[in-house]
Amino acid sequence: MTINKDMTIGEILKLDRGTANIFMSFGMHCLGCPHATAESLQDACAAHGANADALVTKLNEHMAAQA
Q1: Residue 8 forms beta bridges with which residues?
Q2: Rounded to whole angstroms, how far apart are CA atoms 36 and 62?
Q3: Which of 1, 26, 54, 61 has the most CB atoms at less than 10 Å from its CB?
Q4: How far is residue 16 from each of residues 21, 25, 49, 55, 66, measured CA to CA in Å?
């Protein structure tokens, strides 16, 4: 599965809990908060000052390595 900026953090964590470390490395430490299931990855990155494209790249690299 390919990760994209329209997905929520919650959706991505359901696919692979191992992505939590990647989110935390981008300053997203509240993975269990209500926003993690409601806002898009793009919106979450904007709120945390993170680069959405870089995060999506890292997440997809992780997912590819798991396959």
Answers
A1: 40
A2: 19
A3: 26
A4: 11, 16, 23, 15, 9
In 10 A of CB 35, how many CB atoms?
Answer: 16
Q: Is residue 23 part of a domain?
A: yes
Domain membership flag for residue 3: no
The number of residues making up the chain comes to 67
Query: pTM to 2 decimals?
Result: 0.92
For residue 56, the enclosing domain spans 9-66
pLDDT tens for the chain, 67 residues long, are: 899 999 999 999 999 999 999 999 999 988 888 878 889 999 999 999 999 999 999 999 999 999 7
**Is the residue at 1 inside a domain?**
no
